[in-house]
Specification:
Blueprint lengths: L13 H10 L5 H13 L6 H13 L4 E5 L5 H10 L4 E6 L2 H11 L8 E5 L2 H7 L4 E6 L6 H8 L3 E10 L16 H15 L3 E6 L5 E6 L5
Parallel strand pairs: 1-2, 1-4, 2-3, 4-5
Antiparallel strand pairs: 5-7, 6-7
Helix pairs in contact: 3-4, 6-7
Length: 222
């Protein structure tokens, strides 16, 4: 589960988290392989609870087209791919080429792979180069890039669509004054204020994982 190494507190009490985790059905081999890869390389994951919520919300709004600002080797894309269905599309972005190699190796010929396309490069540039609108977007890149990603995403998400962002509670660090050199916490604090003040969206934060925000894109006449 993605969180800062110097997190101040658990967002969810560990016993409650363990109880919820025990309710989940057994993971399929692909999800287990993705989690094993993360454990082997110390890669921070959004986590199953957040992933299942992403899938559920995509199903709720009948999402068919999703963009990820930051994809790694395709962990969150796994849940989005389930959420968009066989005719849907998940477009990802990843600046580290080796993550795309791992993505291809882990997914191999799995049916979900045909629903996922992860591009190599800067997330904002990749997003700008993709035509059309999206039903849902996930922001999970370097924290200094969250604000720009949100500004880029809002005009491109259809009314009623969703914008998610991971790590918005940042191990509880956002609730306290950030150290002068803690630019990640400062960026997330600014991002939180941005989420709740932008009139084009309505936002709430779920205390799952490391804090997952969900914003609904309003219509221009709302």
């Amino acid at each position: 589960m993605s969180h800062p190494t110097d997190a101040l507190l658990h967002i969810l009490h560990p016993e409650v988290g363990d109880y919820i985790a025990e309710l989940f059905p057994p993971a399929d081999p692909l999800l287990e392989a993705l989690e094993a890869q993360a454990a082997a390389q110390g890669f921070p994951l959004i986590g199953r609870a957040s992933g299942r919520f992403l899938e559920m919300m995509c199903r709720t709004i009948s999402a068919a087209r999703v963009f990820e600002f930051g994809s790694g080797f395709g962990y969150s894309a796994y849940f989005f791919a389930h959420g968009v269905g066989a005719d849907g599309e998940v477009i990802g972005s990843e600046c580290d080429a080796h993550e795309l190699v791992d993505h291809a190796r882990i997914y191999q010929d799995h049916p979900l792979r045909s629903r996922i396309r992860i591009e190599h490069g800067d997330a904002l540039e990749i997003f700008a180069g993709e035509p059309g609108t999206f039903d849902a977007v996930l922001i999970d890149i370097h924290k200094s890039g969250y604000s720009a990603a949100l500004e880029a995403a809002i005009p491109r998400v259809r009314p009623g669509g969703l914008i998610f962002a991971d790590n918005v509670l940042w191990g509880g660090k956002v609730a306290r004054t950030a150290d002068p050199d803690d630019t990640s916490t400062q960026a997330l604090q600014d991002f939180g204020r941005q989420l709740f003040s932008d009139p084009r969206i309505r936002t709430d934060i779920l205390p799952i994982g490391d804090g997952l925000s969900m914003s609904v894109r309003l219509s221009d006449t709302a």
